[in-house]
Design a protein that fits this description.
heterodimer; A: alpha+beta; Chemotaxis protein chec; 8-stranded antiparallel β-sheet; 3 helices; 37% helix
Chain lengths: 152, 119
């Protein structure tokens, strides 16, 4: 199998993120262009899922509590309690990262994911080499930011 | 009606699966948050069916399937995971899983899988 260079990998991750988010979240999104950021990344409320294999890094999903709540209600047809909301946020991260990993396998980029960690209270993330993020906006609900932090 | 053990590290997903299984007329007899607990609960409860996530702390779902099948080759296990790539599906089926449901799923997909396995 031919190993893809980093730019090709980043392009596939961006394409895959858009396809995956549209597949997992049953809402019509406006998707922004990818933007670069520098460390540190501060996360008020989000989910972190680690990637291993041909991509080494983390995927972070960040949104306000009411946005996670709206998405959960839309996907599962009922309002979520606070405890279930945290668990749902983790599961949403798992579903998006898992679907992204599945998409990447289809373009011959082999990855595995870790179980999700919910981040709260302005967690600061540093130590990554490069990162980009994309904003996904849902009309009348709010935005979800998807970050990819690469350690390679 | 089947007696079902639900395995997933997310409480939210266990609740969803429990709601679906119950509304389809089955009984959820246990809930496990990782593969190790699933093995212990399987031995204790001897359920008719196990739903098994893959990416979990302590022990992943594929390892748990292998252990459960080692102790009880007749165990009926359905994977329920966000990781749908061919290699992952193949590994789970080779370990002894009867079906592979990719998250997110709906009640129809669960009903279809159970209909096939339990008939």
């Amino acid at each position: 199998m031919e190993t893809k260079n980093l730019n090709e990998v980043i392009k596939e991750v961006y394409n895959g993120t858009i396809i995956t988010v549209k597949k997992v979240i049953p809402l019509d999104p406006n998707i922004g262009s990818p933007q670069l950021i520098s460390p540190p990344l501060t996360v008020e409320l989000g989910v972190l899922v680690g990637f291993t294999g041909e991509i080494k890094g983390e995927l972070i999903l960040q949104a306000k509590e009411n946005v996670f709540s709206h998405i959960g209600e839309k996907m599962f047809g009922m309002p979520l309690s606070q405890e279930m909301l945290d668990s749902f946020a983790g599961e949403l991260g798992n579903m998006i990262a898992g679907s992204l990993s599945t998409y990447l396998a289809s373009v011959e980029i082999s990855t595995d994911i870790t179980y999700p960690t919910v981040l709260k209270g302005n967690a600061q993330l540093t130590g990554f080499k490069r990162s980009f993020f994309v904003t996904i906006e849902y009309e009348n609900i709010g935005k979800v930011e998807v970050y990819l932090l690469l350690n390679q | 009606m089947a007696r079902i053990l639900v395995t997933d590290d997310a409480a939210f997903m266990r609740m969803q699966l429990k709601n679906i299984f119950t509304s389809l007329g089955h009984e959820v007899v246990g809930e496990a948050e990782n593969g190790k607990i699933a093995i212990d609960l399987y031995n204790e409860l001897k359920p008719d069916l196990v739903s098994m996530d893959i990416t979990m702390p302590e022990m992943n779902g594929v390892e748990a399937v292998k252990e459960i099948k080692k102790n009880d080759p007749k165990a009926t296990i359905v994977m329920c995971s966000a990781m749908g790539q061919q290699q992952m599906v193949l590994e789970a089926i080779q370990a002894g899983a009867k079906d592979f449901i990719v998250k997110p799923f709906d009640q129809e997909r669960i009903q279809q899988a159970l209909g096939k396995i339990l008939s």
